[in-house]
## 1
Amino acid sequence: MVAEDISKAVRRVDAVAKSNGTAKYVPDYDFGDCLWARMIRSSIPRGKILNINLPELPEGYTFVSYKDIPEGGKNYLHMIATDWKCFAEDEVRYVGETIGLLVGPDKTKLEDLLEQVKVDYEEMEAATTIDEGVACKGGAFVNDNNIHCHLKLEVGKPDEAFAKAAKIVEETIETGFQEHIYLETNGACCVPEKNGEYTVYASAQCPFYIRKSIAPLLNISPEKITVKQTTTGGAFGGKEHFPDVLCGPLLVAAHKTGKTVKMIFDREEDVEFSVKRHPSKVVFKTGLDENGNIVAMDSKVYYNVGGYLASSFVVLQRGCFHVTGCYEFPNFRTEGFGVATNTFPSCAFRGFGAPQTLFAIETHMCHLAEMQGLDPLEYKRRYFIKQGGITSTNGKIVERVMIPEMLDQVLKASDYERKIKEYGTGKGKGIGISFYNHGGAFTGNGEQAIIKGKCKLRKYKDGTVEILCGQTEMGQGFHTILPKIAAHVLEIPIEKVIFDDPNTSRVPDSGPTAASRSTMIVGELVERAATLMKPRYDKEEEFEVMTEYEHPEGYPWDQSTFQGYAYLGYGWGVCAVEVEVDPCTAEITTKGVWSSHDCGHLIDEKIVHGQVNGGILQGLGWGSTEVLENVKGHFKQTSISSYIVPTSMDFPKQGVYFVENPYEWGPFGAKGMGELVFNGSAAAYIDAVSRAIGKRICSIPCPTETVMNYMLNGKDIKEAL
Amino acid sequence: MDAKISFKLNGKNVSITTDPLRRLLDILRDDFKLTGVKEGCSEGECGACSVLLNGKIVTSCIIPIGAVDGQEVMTIEGVSATEGGKIIVEAFADGGAVQCGFCIPGMVIAAYYLLSNNPNPTDDEIRLGISGNICRCTGYDLIVESIKLAAERGEKIWKK
């Protein structure tokens, strides 16, 4: 019997319970006689805490602060770096920084008490933008230059090439904050158990990250904390490290009170006081020869990191690695700067630094073409990277690059070539196109050197098989993908495979659910484990097999110099967007959105289709309406009515296409794709809008008001850079 | 001051003595343990807390319980037990409408309300029908397809 292609869609295992309302998210659990917690947060962006004035607390109500961390405990959260404090001590670095918790049995009473808390500060001058951070406005507060982190990459001989260039042009491309707007806000609950142990329930992507991050607060080993993920209502990176910011204080509160303590953010506090996508500024200097060909490119990449570094150096690295996009330039240099500012720290968000630089390179490439009177697509074609091509880290592209095939699909579906000629520029209609990729999994040999992911399969007497690993379902479909892989290898029905939300005391650490690694890496661990299990499946009643990640040999990576093969398997994408602009109101109607992706072999075509739809729409939101301004350290948009994410009416049905390009080391040939599908739609949209209005657009988001401004005051798209 | 409020909840007569200004959402979730009703935005914008009030779709986060006295409320728990509700849940599962799921009970309510009033909607009418429900995962396309599927599968029920 030939097994059915694994791509064929199956019904998601979680679909019915989520549709009929029986799936339980963390706010839905009844923890019995528990205490509620509310955060006391900094109301200023920078300053010294002079005094915390608390109202008289009724019986059963408690204030929790850094002073409640027991002897030997450390007041920090371990989020790659360890600089982010669990509780502010004498200084605050951003609006919303946790100063303490108010804990008590009645939510309404807590609200009243919270309003009576007054914190006295000695306020200091704050830096909130990249430029202010670099200028050390108010004095540096990180190192002596406000640079949290820095890296530099070089390919070829850029200095020599610039010296010979016929022309050198400069351009700056910027992107703004973006809020995740997972539909379920952050929430967690900490339960004290016997023997000084704790159980944490959280809406989270990475249960193992949480216990590692918060255990030092009580100076206990991470194994003393069991983290149970609850059904998670979306995350997009916003629940990768950020749950630590809730769980840390809750752990200290549970330690102090000896009681279960629960905290659920309402939407306003979740928008106002949670991590965001890093705002970015990329400054290009590009050398052209007499024919307009690129001979050298230099880029300076600035990310607004906020008050604490946390995971941002890794975000910046990924940003710099992706700044060459889908192109190969013979001489190239990039320098990345993680800038300290007094804004809420930025952290993971789908794409993890790559979308910003990909938007920048795509937009810069369009502008290089337009100023020479060339078609952007034709100009970009000259530089497409191919298998064996040199990457930004002096590694090579290992796999076949199918951009030409994907481009053909998108050109055909969108009727691009006819439209680009017919619409011209500045005539109210525009079609744009973008190219993008995303390196799957942790950089270089990180999966083996840092993550060391492990996965177990256990067979039970009745023939069911349980997958034991730390991967989480947060909407992306992993509760279906992993069982599907195991069932396919074992040739048993998917109903015979169990895969529960992880409990850190029951499952091995297979690494975080992040970095588009789960299917590609952990899926492969499951595929291998199932292959080991298969010959024993009928013979033995109960047994376990375990697999551990091994990096393929022959693809060196040096994490200290960032040189070598950064990624063995990239996802690749091409996206086209067509718009019409109302000449009077500047309102934009999107007429079409088409994409093609290379995700290797699809594990489930419907799940991947849904990821494409959602990722592209989230990218279109980032490029258009999702304005998130920070004024003097405060986010100005603090709700779903003021922070505008796309509705069902804002963009049309998408044309979705794929190419088949199996990945050698992935399960059934699958590669990572969850982030890839976000990375390109904003650039295609902006290309389309700028062609429609005939003006050069260098920053996003670009809502109607901004489009109007460009129409009235913008630079002509063909003007020299 | 507390007041006694009586209403019909998922087909049963219920009453509760409480502050009439409390939100219908909190009463449903905290007092009646109907946790399928989700809180997404607390300002009537996202649709996650949608319920049917006298057969019309409303956001329960901006309705005080006092306004519900003598009225009829259907939540996802009630709707998903109806014949039409079952068809929508099945269509959502088969059509790939569900990802994180947090918006989905509200989407099911919106689909039920739409199909009950327009058994054979066009794509544009479906998009309009769910435009009060924010979904951050799916990009809406497969939700629209799933509602079309539910319209087809439940043809006889919706036309009643």
Note: The mean pLDDT of chain A is 97.
## 2
Amino acid sequence: MQKYSIFNLVKNAFSNHQNWDLAWKDPTPKEEYDVVIIGGGGHGLATAYYLAKEHNITKVAIIEKGWIGGGNVGRNTTIIRSNYMHDENGLFSEFGMDLWRRMSQDLNYNVMFSPRGIINLAHSDAQMNAYARRGNSMRLNGIDAVLLNRQQVKEIIPMADFSDNVRFPIFGGLMQPSAGTARHDAVAWGYARQADSMGVDIIQNCEVIGFDVSAGKINGIRTSRGNIKAKKVGLCVAGSTNILAEKLNMTLPIETHLLQACVSEPVKPVLDNVVTFGAGHFYVSQSDKGEMVMGGDLDGYNSYAQRGNLPTLQHVLTEGIAMMPFLSKLKMLRTWGGIMDMSMDGSPIIDKTHIEGLYLNCGWCYGGFKATPASGWTFAHTIAQDRVHELNAGYSLNRFSTGHLIDEKGLGTKTWIS
Amino acid sequence: MLYINCPHCGMRSQNEFSYGGDASVKRPELNKEVSDQEWDDFVYNRKSLRGKHLELWQHISGCRQWIKVERDTATHEIFRTFKADEEVA
């Protein structure tokens, strides 16, 4: 594989950049693989990469119905953070933060990781207390957290509404300075390029039609491009999890919902951090191009539409304008939607299943993008070793029946509860 | 914007309704022994398929009645609506 470097950039300039290698190949499916990963999104590509890199398993195929990176890894608001209170989420995400910090070097691909900090605004004394508690829990887990008072927030985000006559005055906020954003497409492409170079077959435009299961063991999959035998199969299909689960006669604690995001026209730099509104569900950051990148609530009903509905967008942006009134002056450039695998407690599932050789990675709710490296790393471990790693031990499938839910925010499918 | 035909009030906009999830889920019979698996299926496990989906909505800013709506989860087309206690054939 050609290394991406300033030297190679200059060298290829002499041939008008016509002679670069393809970043990944377009192989035809082989008859058999050691591991088949279904889903060529961020998590699937990362899983294949860590299977090859950490576990030396390279007879791997990624099966993708559309094109890689065309789902949620290309549809999110690119936020990376580990500001969780519970140990399961905090330690898992902080492990991911380490991988994020090294990712560009590790993948030889500039993912434009920008640790610009995330600030969760608080709008009451009670919320300040809750943030102090969460911040302390984070620090006990080695995650950086700073509690900001109103004045400190005002210095960092002068564009927020600090006038006296507002419904939700800003009391302060909880900041994780090491959180940030990254270029989402580059994450998918970087993992794909490295996985491909280590021998992983990335098979696009290939739909999974069914599974070959006998005597409680998986033997392979049936696809639109023929049958593929596999010793192990990993599901990494986010919003399509329920569709594949039905083919396996499994019913999961997952519902598929639609989450929208939008960007404004580009403006000059006004916002250095990622900011979330504490009295509702709204988050915003400014992209390197200057667009305000915004998102918020689910549309609220089961959906596979990959496109949004206006009432939710209006609701979300009303919160945005309450927080930063200048947003009302901006024109909207694009809105889009992605279909989310919403788990019932708002936390993900990375686990084995009752079928031998079948592994499940789903339930990412609002936070799939930032989990990409940690999810891939732990899922690869779970598949390669046939046992969960301690980092994803809490993300078990049976926690719903045993009562070991991870109620980080209680924000699962039932958004109206919170 | 969805338009939902409330069986009590007629056609109203989505803004008047709140969503209540899968309407095909049945609460286990309480006068017999209920297994953990049955509770698990009732409380957490959902099919959530692409296509026709029978679901509960509440006409929260209208008559406040719960209703059943048959909707396509991919196209958002609404086929039929029912009163909460109506049997769906």
Note: Residues 96 and 374 of chain A are 4 Å apart (CA to CA).
